[in-house]
Write a structure and sequence with these properties.
With 375 residues, the chain is of the alpha/beta class.
C-alpha cells in the first residue's frame, strides 16, 4: 500500500522492519515450529528488495547471562540470526537499549553468531570505533553505507570498552561528515524517542533535523514500539518509528495496557530511493504470540490511515507531543511504577524515578494538566 509516491528514477529499494524481540510466546512458538515461522509473512517483500533491514532488540545469549536488574526474558536464541537471513534480511542494528542486557559476553556472542550467518551488524561493538563502523554494500552499482546509533545511557561503547554507538550530535556530525562523501546512498538507523506514543518528542525532532542537514538519504527510527509518521525534507526521508515486527508484549517485567492495540499494527516498510523517495507498507498485525501475520483489508486500511494522519501531524509535532503524547507517556510511567512497586521491584521503581531530568518537568506538568495521570 502506497504511502508516498516516488519522483524520478528509482536507484535503490530498501525494505525495513522494526524491533525483533522473539521472547515469551514468540520464542516458544519458534522453538516448536522453527524460527523461520517468525518472518514468514514478511519474507517475500524482504527478499525482493535490494537491501533489507531490522532492529535486533535483544542480544543472543542465555538466561544465566542476563545482568542483574534486567528482565530475564530479554535475550534471543541463536536461531534468530539464521531466520533473519533466510527471510532476506542482510543488516541488523544492534544499537538499542537492550543490546547490553547480557553484558560483554552477550554482545560478543551476538556479533559472532550474526557474522557466522553472514548477517551484517551495525551500532554496537567491542570498542567505540567498532560500534560506529558502518556496514557497506554495493547494490545496483552504488555504494550503500548503513550506520546505527541509540540513546546510550550507561551502555555506550568506550574507546576500549564494549557497548552501543551513542546517539550524540557531535558523533553524528563526525561520522556523517566522513561517510557522506563516500556513499552514494547513506542510511542511518536510530533507536530514539518515547514508547507507545504517536509523536516524537522535541529531542528526536532536533536529531532528525540534524540528520537532514548532514545529508542522510534515509533515517529509520525504532524504540517507541508503535509505528509513527514519516516526512521528507531536503534529501532525507525519515521514518520516525517502524514499530515492532516480532514481539510478545506480555513477556518481561509486565504487560503495559497503554496503546495495546496500536502496538499490534506493524508491517514491512519499503523505501525506493529516488530524487524524491517513494514509501510503501505491507501491513501486518501481531497475533497473540507476537508474530506478524498479514493484516486483513479493513485493518490494513485503518493502519495506513493512521500513518497518513501522523504524517500530516508532523507539521506540528512538538505541540502534538505536548498535547497528545506526553499524557500517554505519563500514564505508561505511572503504570510502570505501580507494577514495580506491587512486585517488590524497588530497584526498578527507584531507577524510573531517578531517570526524571529537569527537561522532563514541563512535559510532566503539561501532561498532568491534561489529565495524563488518570488510570
Amino acid at each position: 500500500m502506497i504511502l508516498r509516491e516516488l519522483v524520478g528514477e528509482p536507484r535503490l529499494e530498501v525494505a525495513a522492519m522494526g524491533d525483533v524481540g522473539a521472547i515469551g510466546r514468540a520464542r516458544a512458538r519458534a522453538r516448536r515450529d522453527g524460527f523461520d515461522v517468525l518472518f514468514a509473512a514478511c519474507a517475500p517483500r524482504l527478499r525482493a528488495a535490494d537491501l533489507s533491514f531490522a532492529n535486533l532488540e535483544f542480544p543472543i545469549g542465555e538466561p544465566s547471562w542476563v545482568r542483574a536488574g534486567r528482565a530475564a526474558e530479554f535475550h534471543h536464541d541463536a536461531g534468530i540470526a539464521a531466520a533473519l537471513v533466510t527471510a532476506g534480511v542482510r543488516v541488523v542494528s544492534l544499537a538499542n537499549n537492550h543490546m547490553m542486557d547480557c553484558g560483554e559476553r552477550g554482545l560478543s556472542h551476538t556479533l559472532e553468531i550474526c557474522a557466522a550467518q553472514g548477517l551484517a551488524t551495525v551500532g554496537a561493538g567491542m570498542t567505540l570505533d567498532q560500534a560506529c563502523r558502518p556496514a557497506q554494500f554495493e547494490r545496483r552499482g552504488r555504494k550503500v553505507v548503513v550506520l546505527a546509533y541509540a540513546t546510550a545511557a550507561d551502555d555506550a561503547a568506550g574507546e576500549a570498552g564494549p557497548g552501543i554507538a551513542p546517539l550524540e550530535p557531535a558523533r553524528l556530525a563526525q561520522d556523517l561528515a566522513h561517510w557522506r562523501p563516500l556513499a552514494d546512498d547513506l542510511i542511518v538507523s536510530v533507536h530514539w524517542g518515547s514508547m507507545y506514543v504517536d509523536y516524537p518528542p522535541p529531542r528526536v525532532l532536533e536529531i532528525a533535523a540534524q540528520l537532514e542537514s548532514l545529508g542522510a538519504d534515509l533515517v529509520m527510527g525504532h524504540h517507541p514500539h508503535v509505528t509513527q509518521g514519516f516526512r521528507f525534507k531536503q534529501r532525507t526521508l525519515t521514518l520516525f518509528s517502524l514499530g515492532d515486527i516480532v514481539f510478545d508484549a506480555a513477556a518481561g517485567d509486565f504487560e503495559a495496557a497503554v496503546a495495546s492495540e496500536a502496538r499490534r499494527d506493524t508491517g514491512v516498510f519499503t523505501v525506493t530511493l529516488a530524487r524524491e523517495p517513494g514509501l510503501e507498507i505491507d501491513p501486518c498485525v501481531l497475533d497473540p504470540d507476537g508474530v506478524p501475520t498479514p493484516a486483513d483489508a479493513s485493518r490494513a486500511a485503518a493502519a495506513v490511515a493512521r500513518l497518513e494522519r501522523l504524517h500530516q501531524g508532523l507539521d506540528r509535532a512538538a505541540d502534538r507531543f505536548l498535547s497528545e503524547s506526553a499524557p500517554t507517556l505519563l500514564r505508561y510511567e505511572i503504570e510502570s511504577l505501580g507494577a514495580y512497586l506491587r512486585s517488590g521491584r524497588l530497584d526498578r521503581a527507584l531507577k524510573l524515578l531517578l531517570a526524571v531530568r529537569p527537561r522532563h518537568l514541563p512535559l510532566i506538568w503539561n501532561a498532568l494538566k491534561r489529565g495524563g495521570g488518570r488510570p
